[in-house]
Amino acid sequence: MTPLFHITTQTDWARARALGTYRAPSLDSEGFIHLSTSAQWRKTAGRFFKGQAQLVLLELDPSGLDVRFEPADHDLFPHLYGALPVSAVLRTTRFDVSATGDVADSAPE
Known about the structure:
- With 109 residues, this protein is α+β, with helices and mostly antiparallel strands.
- Helix content is 21%, strand content 36%.
- It is built from three helices and nine strands, in the order E-H-E-H-E-H-E-E-E-E-E-E.
- The strands form three sheets. Strands 1-4-8-9 form a four-stranded antiparallel beta sheet. Strands 3-6-5 form a three-stranded antiparallel beta sheet.
């Protein structure tokens, strides 16, 4: 099992823990939740979360989930088709992204 990663806010993660499932807005708008591999998540954070604080990196076990690797931005990215059960999250790490897109030091939750 190779873990996959998803970036969200602390607020959205707290809501997901209370509900037992996580639903990113992209699940409704695009039909899937964007994920990243260990080699991709920092670049994703720098590109899409520049200047944001109080983010949470979800490290998840993709076993039993409907994950498909699909082309995007000249790479293959994992996409989760369906909601993410909180039980599939192995670890969470808080972090910030600087205004220049650098990932600041992280701290496990």
